[in-house]
Amino acid sequence: MIKLIGARRVFILLAFFALNALIVSSYFLALQPLQSEAxxxxxxxxxxxxxxQGKIRNIKQDLIDYKDNEPRYQKLKTMGFFQTQDRxxxxxxxxxxxxxxxxxxxxxxxxxxxxxxxxxxxxxxHRLIHSQVSLKKVQSSFDNNVYDFAQSLAEAFxxxxxxxxxxxxxxxxxxxxNLQRVAGGEKVGFxxxxxxFDWLTLVxxxxxxxxxxxxxxVPAGGxxxx
Amino acid sequence: MIGGEGIVIFGxxxxxxxxxxxxxxxxxxxxxxxxEALTEQNRHVPIxxxxxxxxxxxxxxxxxxxxxxxxxxxxVKRKLEMAFPSYPIRASLQIKPQGKNAKAxxxxxxxxxFVALPETEHLDKIGAGLLEAxxxxxxxxxxxxxxxxxxxxxxxxxxxxxxxxxxxxxxVLIGQHETGGLRQVxxxxxxxxxxxxxxxSEAGMQGSLWVEEVLREFKGTLTYLSRxxxxxxxxxxVVVICSDVDKQFFDQKALPVTNFxxxxxxxxxxxxxxxxxxxDKNNFADALHAAWMSKKRAxxxxxxxxxxxxxxxxxxxxxxxxxxxxxxxxxxxxxxxNEYQNYLGVKNDIESTQSQEKSLEREYAKExxxxxxxPVKIEVVKGVLAVKKTLDTNTVAMGPxxxxxxxxxxxxxxxxxxxxxxxxxxxxxxxxxEEAVAGKKTAxxxxxxxxxxxxxxxxxxxxxxxxSSLTLEQxxxxxxxxxxxxxxxxxxxxxxxxxPFGNVTSTGIFEGIMGGETTAVxxxxxxxESEFAEIQMEGVPL
Lengths: 226, 542
Description:
By secondary structure, chain A is an alpha+beta fold.
């Protein structure tokens, strides 16, 4: 066969065959793995770039959100949302409110602080603490004073208050003798009310019990006063 | 070119052919001379073998029936075998009408030219030489068939008809061949009609005796022509390849032809646009046929000679395979280069993306620095506001309820006791708080969206009086009216009379005494029981 085709031609054929084989093998054994590796590397780098772009986008958005929300946060802070619910402070506030609304007097009691489990508070290492304040026998000449007093709790008290119950009873009849007593300057309590409200604030979680935080010690017990 | 006397090898030149060597069959070392000639002078250009021997036989086969594309070749092959049963080498060629007659034969059955030749010792010698020389073989053709076009073209270029005259249908080329013999090729309308080869004689290859032989043989050809339907009206052009000296011996008027001319080989070559090198001054016509062949791309009638075909086919196959391998290598190489360039492109992309990544990292570090320097962490701000939102959701202002209630109460209704209570929703339930105080660590309850939006319940209890001038029945009726009004005011609320006046209702248990000792119609209630009624309202915050 070699003589039929010619040695030179056979040599050329084999040389070209070897050349083809060399090209194919170099492609599959060298170039293709390199391509695959490069493609993988490019995908990885692009992924990292995309991740960074996402992070930067998030940070920028967070900064925008911060700018929008920070004033509201500061306002809450100013309004006492992070206070530890000092009982003496409560009594001072109540007294000021009583005088402002011309109420004759009442007794109050404050229950122990409770912690309300809240996912959002937990996520930022804070606790929602709650004190129930009961005002008993709030005496007033008129029921409007009582209603005004109850509604003003939200503004006069540190944030946040929740009016749980308001109960108003007529204790004295509106008759002539009583009206004459009022005309005489005597304070007659025609109505008497019982008010129960909740005071809720947000305080940082202590590292370990008992609770000690940057603002101050959390009072552990109830409180009564008049 | 292979003839009866020997072979002549022609090689291509810039614009024509070059006579390289002639070898007689009688030379003792014919094989060695042939191999040497092929290997030394051949420049790996494929060899075309032109057979000009006397052994070839022709037959025209007409009226081949019209058959399908697949059936006709088999029919023709069978006809060929029947025509030349003892000849091992056979071939056929469909004759296609040329020129003006082409349109006239539409509908006429096709005709074929059958050729055959024996496998002689000369062909075996050629095959052996080709085998040893290792040169590529392009094909094997028969000179008269392949040169039919040469005759027509040479006649056309030599005897261009004047305006008004029509071109001759018949043409003859006569020439002395170095390979042996006087060759006459006659064509009619461009197709081979007669091929005659007169073996060398004592007349020689030039001179007056040779001219006489030419005339004698041509006259013989004329008698064949008349049998094939030649008439002087068709026109007959004759070209004789000879020297200027021999030309003088030809007397044109003595020949009954339309046109007659003598051309030297070199002139004839020029006529067909070719040139001859080393053709000497002997005016052999072989170079003319070789030059014509060199101008063509393919043989008109390739003939398969077994002793040559067995060499030609593998070498053609090897040549084809070489070309294929070369093209494949080029293609694969181009593809690989392209892929490599793509790879480099990807590498560039990687570099640019990495530099983009570095830039982004710097930007991220810069933004993070600003972020970290904030006085309060953003998560804390978001969390605080979320908690406040929960508290606001669960806090209800009681003012509107009191306002609505007072609007609903007319002047005759005097309330004695009013209670408004808001029960917290699921979002701020204190159930889990007890456990927290006890020191048990509990996870915040997982509340559904509906639970998170639960705003609790509003409960209002109103105790009121009506003027004492009203009878119990009137008070009850007035109460019903008041309840309706409250129902309309606090839509979707559950409004019910928990304590009616006198503890009786217009549809409930009722007792009375008619006539008799007292005028009371109702069992006197205990003191105070008829003085007030109590209504309770319960529902979700407005």
